[in-house]
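If you are new to this repository, start here. Below is one unmodified record pulled from the training split, so you can see the exact layout before writing a loader.
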Amino acid sequence: MTTKELYLNITEGTIVTAEMAEKAQSELAKMAVEATKRAEKAAAKRSSEDAPLVEAMQTLLSDHKVRTASEMAEALGISTSKATAVAKRIPNLSVSEVQVNRRIVKGYSL
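And here is the target side for that same chain:
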């Protein structure tokens, strides 16, 4: 049974046969493999791109002063959300709550 036949049978509302169930399971398995490959490729690309930022951020935090994500982002020339994501990759990172202009935000230090 082809994928087209499977989809046609489903749209027509026919009774699911063993062959249709087999085909659906094989298609789901293929989709899972493709999703895993895609996720691994994205993770590898992300880690290779972020490696210099992680090192720069570790150097920035090496004075053991508590810094917010916006302070780190400004110092490194990246967005605040990117700074937060990169900070989460640093081992032994301490996260605390810091009050900035009547708001409580996360502060990061080593």
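Two things worth knowing about this chain: The radius of gyration is 24 Å. The chain is about 65% helix and 15% strand.
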